[in-house]
Design a protein that fits this description.
- The complex is a heterodimer of chains A (381) and B (117).
- Chain A is mainly α.
- Helix content of chain A is 70%, strand content 1%.
- In chain A, β1 and β2 (233-234) form a beta hairpin.
- Chain B has a single domain, classed as Dimeric alpha+beta barrel (Alpha-Beta Plaits).
- The longest helix of chain B has 15 residues, at 25-39.
- The chains are: A mainly alpha (381), B alpha+beta (117).
- Chain A binds chain B through residues 104, 106, 152-156, 158, 160, 164, and chain B through 1, 3, 88-92, 94-95, 112, 114, 116.
Chain lengths: 381, 117
Amino acid sequence: MFREQWGRVLAALIGILGDFDLAEEAAQEAFTIAAERWPVDGEPANPGAWLLTTARNRALNRVRRDRTFAAKAPLLVPTEDAEEDVDATAFPDERLELIFTCCHPALDVDAQVALTLRTLGGLATDDIARAFLVREATMAQRLVRAKRKIRAAGIPFRVPSGDALPERLAAVLAVVYLIFNAGFGGRDEMTSEALWLGRALAELMPDEPEVHGLLAMMLLLDARREARIRNGDLVLLADQDRSLWDAEQIAHGRAVLDRALALHGRGPYVVQAAIASLHAEEPRDWGQIAALYGELGRLTGSPVVELNRAIAVAEERNPESGLEIIDRIPLEDYHYVHAARGELLRRLGRTAEARDAYGRALALVHDDGERRLLERKLQEL
Amino acid sequence: MQYMMLIYQGTTPTPGSNEWDELADDEKNAVYRDYMALNETPGVTPGRQMQPPELATTVRVQEGKTLTTDGPFVEMKEAVGGYFFFEADDIDAAIEVASRVPAARMGGAIEIRPFVG
């Protein structure tokens, strides 16, 4: 209930009031009242409209009482019909306006992430702080500063139009992906938050292939979550127990991917979703996977993608072909490069070189799970 | 909203320099044309042209004593090279105008500073 309604109610309130803080306080008040009354009086027919009306009226009363609020929110002019109930059908869904405001490039990326989780997701400041490993006070300050900048710099509450949309949408998707990655790094609640945001975006922008691409990719990757870790250790895809994969979620992810492809999507998220889908097949079509990594590399220019292509090429043809690609990748300080070299050298029986490569990977790795995996590989040589 | 638009030249060639002389004629003309179009954009109040940062003088007061030094407060290429005012509904319009300032694509940058109130 809270999660379904919070973002919509808050977005509509910001649209009406033109002020984040005032809207947030009013929304909080309305949700508190609902928590007291609904168990006794029963849930209203349209909970969202009820919450919005209640919150709006509270905000208007506050403005009437408190002149400093009126000065803060000059857009807020109490109208004659202010006390009337909000028409359920006219309850506007302004979550898109809200997410584009939160992910405006004039805000720091960390602030974009925090603000999106706070306003759309309704997460508490200390939960966000924990997920991103910063102190609560630091996170609170980050949110305050972001809201202050929205007000002072005139960041609009609007979905960008025309030419600006692709770039701005990419920024929104990047924020959702960052949240998802925080989840993949062990903060499970962030994964479900990212999936929830992805679903909301897909519902709000049904014709944008990259939106479906991102959602499909997240669903397909997350479907393997249970199999990724065994006894606290990372398990490589090839060694994963496939019975632990969530088959239903994989099917769902593929359906979302089909939707993106039907919209002629060929952007980076759609390609990554297609790769994730191919990785969920047995036997894997390494030729196709390598070709898609090639396409993704052309789209992003990322050497990390080139590394993945090298691994796919090694599977498709032979380890030498993979090594040839790896040796051209300018990523000396990236432990995966050395881990991948080590693996391919091992397959070629070049044990001494493989040991060297794993050693270099170990010197660069930070994550404990990955370190143990590398140590295991080194011992098995 | 009212914005102060600060132009940082960075490595942008400016008239009078060798780098400027090496620019092709259409490139030079494009720069003049773009600045003129900018000055005629609704909401823009052009700033006055400033002498280059090389001719700046910086003043500090330490323990009651006025210290005057030759040159800008920051590094030469970090110094403000020009400015204009812009009035619009929101920062998106200011970002669009900033992106049309030649210095933004020639090695410099534009800083958008909203005014208070």
